[in-house]
Amino acid sequence: MYAQLVETGSKHIRSLDEMAPEERAFQQRVDEGIKIEAKDWMPEGYRKTLIRQISQHAHSEIVGQLPEGNWVTRAPSLKRKSILLAKIQDEAGHGLYLYSAAETLGVSRDELLGGLHSGKAKYSSIFNYPTLSWADMGAIGWLVDGSAIINQVPLCRCSYGPYARAMVRVCKEESFHARQGYDIMLALCNGTPQQKQMAQDALNRWWWPSLMMFGPSDAESVNSAQSAAWRIKLFSNDELRQKMVDQTVPQAQFLGLTVPDPDLKLNEETQHYEFGEIDWTEFNNILKGNGPCNRDRLRTRVKAYDDGEWFRDALVAHADKQESSKAQTQLAA
Ligand code: 3HC
What we know:
Layout (H helix, E strand, L loop, with lengths): L1 H6 L13 H11 L12 H20 L1 H5 L8 H26 L5 H9 L17 H18 L8 H29 L3 H20 L11 H6 L7 H19 L9 E3 L4 E3 L5 H8 L6 H14 L1 H24 L1
Helix pairs in contact: 3-5, 5-8, 7-8, 7-9, 7-11
The site of 3-hydroxybutanoyl-coenzyme A has 30 residues, from helix 3, helix 5, helix 7 and helix 10.
């Protein structure tokens, strides 16, 4: 993608001969697929882009637990409850890997969380929708985690080492998340007509927001060109969105469900599905904080952080006590 972007002179992407020697050496390493590590020199813009993207990715994992948390006590069986609990716990772990990856870039956990709690930092639009039925747990696993896998697998090969390595384990666990979601949808579609209708209603509610997860169109994306040049982004927003549609439509057909898009049709020549226009007004409204659940999600996260202050203080007090007793032992020796 980088070469093509430079050729087309896209959005202030400087070519190698326009770069200072240090930056040119950096870019050549990136172009050769050599991982950049935390101790390596990097352009300030590269560091800032990674902090932005990795922290928002981490925020998405943590906030993403909330819509599903709503259904733990309402799961239809002990088995479904334990699977859902395991998935939600995984997401907390994904958030921790990603916050730790972001911290390797010289930013503190408090700064990252401050960005989320102040509303300055984003998290994925998808988590600002309500979960209205058990079928939503299926649709989220199938469509949202399915989309996350499509977006995250390339990140395992991105240029920044700590991010790429964090993604390897995340993707393994995401596969379980997507499978359990599809299994819920399959059970409902093989159930009573009412259960199948629940699954169809959930697909109707989650289909378009899942396509929005991949970000604005390539033409509207302000970060893609540079992120591609730095091999943070290996595929464009539209390429990954198309991959999700092509992969998911046959799955919906297997379930006997109808994708809520009258313009959806298979292009026999390209073997890709053409689909209708995304409602970017809805997308941009959510990014502005005006989605159905934005305020509730943020309020819940801020309350959880405030309620945990005593625990963080206890950990710091314990660590300080450990430090001082270690120092006294060394003095006495
Ligand atoms: N929700 C919220 N904000 C979004 C968004 C979305 N779905 N898509 C794009 N944006 C924001 C971008 O953050 C950017 O704003 P910023 O500059 O203030 O950060 C702006 O819209 C323009 O979008 P771009 O395409 O230019 O921005 P990026 O190059 O950063 O691409 C992205 C956006 C594709 C989401 C990219 O950041 C990315 O791949 N992030 C890593 C993966 C990720 O965060 N996935 C979110 C879901 S995680 C998840 O689903 C957990 C799973 O367990 C369920």
